[in-house]
Amino acid sequence: MEASELLKKVRKIEIKTKALSHQIFAGEYHSAFKGRGMAFSEVREYQWGDDVRSMDWNVTARLRSPYVKVFEEERELTVVLLVDVSRSGLFGTSGGTKRDRIAEIAAVLAFSASINNDKVGALFFSDRVEKFIPPKKGRSHLLHIIREMLELQPESDGTDIGAALQFLSNAMKKKCNAFLLSDMLDVDADGRPRYEDALKVAVNRADLSVIRVLDPREREIPPTGLVHIKDSESGNGYWVNTDSAPVRRKYAEWFFEVGKNEQALLRRYKVNSVDIPTDCDYVRSLMSLFKS
């Protein structure tokens, strides 16, 4: 992508997502992601009704007058975006690819966090960690993240959510808020998630939320005759008779089972999640995630 074209795309996504970020921030982000405790602010003279447990006895003894400690909420948080850049994200039938939608949602979250004065970092992954941008503040830092989302060319095609979660657990020394943006298509032959062990560790190191981005055509196969279908990550190809009702039904049942297994796993570890199809507005879905 040429520099001028990339700059235009970055600017376009900044203008659109910054406006949406103000909407989300004004509504739900601030109340959903509060500070991680109370920090000492100042000492002032005791007033009638103050909790005696907040008395500062050292200052009281020195000044021979009762003083109390005043605390305020620690507001600053750290937000990490785990962005799936595997090859399956290039699929799209509704005006854009899954990766396009993931990039836009990630930008909204990044600007929402920035408006809230939070640090933002990003971890881009396929079946390996492609790039990690440590959390920082500032507009130039956010634009750097957005540029990477639009321009990054992954070295691998596959998906390994467990590797991304494991890297997050090792990289973050303090607990953070993490958003996993992916189609979540990382399952074994039976449709079960392959990342449970890493998830079990990650939920103790981060407040994790999952945003599953899907294309509506992934839910079911339309009847279009004999079609050659290729797995974009493994490269394996198959001829499929899409006019066959049993074939279409079996595929739909498999896809439903994959989603059911994923939801059961996330509920087990108390991870909030939301499904966002590429052909639907995502603002309401994000706000419902924050409310939950």
Describe the secondary-structure layout.
Elements: H1 3-32, E1 38-45, H2 57-63, E2 67-73, E3 78-84, H3 98-115, E4 119-125, E5 129-136, H4 139-151, H5 161-171, E6 176-182, H6 196-202, E7 206-214, E8 226-230, E9 237-241, H7 245-268, E10 272-277, H8 283-291
Helix pairs in contact: 1-3, 1-4, 1-8, 3-4, 5-6
Provide the helix percentage.
40-55%
Structural class, by secondary structure, is: alpha/beta
Number of helices: 8
Question: How would you characterize the largest beta sheet?
Answer: 6 strands, mixed
Q: Mean of residue pLDDT?
A: 86
Strand arrangement within the widest β-sheet reads: 5-4-3-6-7-10
Strand content: 15-25%
Order of helices and strands: HEHEEHEEHHEHEEEHEH
Terminal residue distance: 39 Å
**CA-based gyration radius:** 23 Å
The total of beta strands comes to 10
Approximate shape: elongated
Residue stretches low in confidence (pLDDT < 50, at least 5 long) are: none
Question: What is the gist of this entry?
Answer:
The chain has 292 residues and is α/β, with parallel strands linked by helices. 41% of the residues lie in helices and 24% in strands.
What do you see in this structure?
The strands form three sheets. A six-stranded mixed β-sheet has the order 5-4-3-6-7-10, sandwiched between helices. Strands 1-2 form a two-stranded antiparallel sheet. The protein has eight helices and ten strands. The relative contact order is 0.14. It is elongated. By secondary structure, the protein is of the alpha/beta class. The mean pLDDT is 86. α1 (3-32) packs across α3 (98-115).
